[in-house]
Amino acid sequence: MSNATDTRDLTRNEHPVKPMAADGQIYLPAPRTASGLGRARGAPASPPPTFLGLASWQAQPEARRRELLRQIEELKGSMPQEVVDMLRSDLVDVDRMLIGRGNQESHRHAQGLREWLTGARIEAVWQTLHGVERALVMYRSGKDLKGGLDGMVADAKRYLPKHDQSVGQAARWTRVPPKDLGEFRSGVRDLLERSHDASNEFHEAARRLRNGMLGITILTVASIVALLVVQWLVPSIWLVPPPTEFTGAPWMLLAFVMVAGSLGAFITAIPTTIRARSAGLPYRLPIQQGLLKLALGPLVSVVGVMFVAGGLVAATTAEGVPQLLALAVLFGSAQQALTAFADKSAGDLLASKDPT
Fold first, then answer.
1. What is the CB-side half-sphere exposure of residue 333 using CA atoms within 13 A?
2. Residue 150: CB atoms within 10 Å
3. Does the structure show a pLDDT above 70 at 214?
4. Which of 133, 135, 165, 131 is nearest to 152 (CA)?
5. By the 8 A CB rule, do 146 and 177 touch?
6. What are the respective helix, strand and coil percentages of the chain, to the nearest 5?
7. Which residues contact 52 (CB under 8 A, 6 or more apart)?
8. CB within 8 A of 101, min separation 6: which ones?
9. Residue 94 sits in the same domain as residue 210
10. For residue 193, is it within any domain?
11. How far apart are CA 64 and CA 31, in angstroms?
């Protein structure tokens, strides 16, 4: 079987990814043939295909998968055929996980929610790619390894401490690599393994933080709904004492206070949300931070108005509806003090990814 035929077999089911164009589409150049050209000589040009993935997180692992396929194609002459078949099979599994093949239609939505909470598919994709990358290191030439070592060191510094021994050793090897090819390969493989483990731990920590904020948000929303239901069922007890001119139902006053509190939360959440970074994570921490603030605002406003009505804040009174709603806005903005810990946790986590 010719090299060109092997390349077609490898790339037949791929879904292109890579640089994003001005129109928002993500394109990847046409698959390389054995000669290194984008298409066969004399073949008609075709428009660049678009990536068929459903989420932005798929773009980077798909690009890595295609690069690993290219490396397998270049190294297959020096690799046992069973190793080539095994690594190709792993990358086929990655392709299926990326585009969601194999899911039964009746369980797709439940499985999608479970994967979203556990990060199972995302983490399985990256762990498989990392395993293939480490396996290929043991078959790469010394010249090839030295050429790619700068990029490996840069990636490792994003997750490993500055004074990590394997990072320091690899940085020295970028200038003078060891003469023993076996030692060179083993050292690079060790660097990749440590970097990949640290990367997996970072993404797991980000997912746990996202799920923690999500859990608090859900409990807060449930508490808000429960307060409204209780006030509607027991109108004789006013959770928020009415001003003199208010003639509506108790649950309506409570709802107005909550809306005013959410307005205060929204105003104070804008600067923090704008400054928040996602660092390319698929877990959307800034969005979850904003949702947590909006959920806490109404609850904090009700608690604050209760304190005022109970005389615990003696310097403040609410004699009319405008004053009451103004207090609710003020207390709703106070959610920033409660969510500052979540903001700091997200900031510290993302800062740990920056080179140190």
1. 10
2. 12
3. yes
4. 133
5. yes
6. 70, 0, 30
7. 15, 99
8. 95
9. no
10. no
11. 14
Domain range for 323: 206-351
Residues 96 and 210 in one domain: no
Q: Please list the residues that pair with 123 across neighbouring strands.
A: none
Helix (H/G/I), strand (E/B), else coil: 49: coil
Whether the CB-CB separation of 270 and 313 falls below 8 Å is answered with no
Residue-wise DSSP of 38-91? SS-TTPPP-PPPBP--SSGGGHHHHHHHHHHHHHHHHHGGGS-HHHHHHHHHHH
Per the DSSP assignment, residues forming a β-bridge with 27 are: 50
Quick check: is 73 in a domain? yes
pLDDT in tens, 121-164: 788 888 999 999 999 999 999 999 999 899 899 888 888 887 88
Answer with the one of 53, 69, 100 that is the final residue of a domain. 100
- Structural domain total, the chain: 2
Q: What is the DSSP-derived secondary structure letter of residue 27?
A: B
Q: In terms of domains, do 346 and 214 share one?
A: yes
Residue where a domain terminates, one of 41, 65, 100: 100
Note whether 281 and 273 are within 8 A (CB).
no
Residue 189: inside a domain, yes or no?
Answer: no
Tell me the per-residue pLDDT of 82-113, one tens digit each, with 9 for 90 and over.
Answer: 999 999 999 999 988 887 654 444 344 445 66
Query: Quick one: 75 and 210 in the same domain?
Result: no
Q: What is the pTM of this model?
A: 0.68
Say if residue 58's pLDDT is above 80. no
Q: Answer whether residue 195 is part of any domain.
A: no
Cβ neighbours for 6, distance < 8 A, ≥ 6 positions apart: 34, 73, 76
Q: Assess whether 87 and 212 both reside in one domain.
A: no
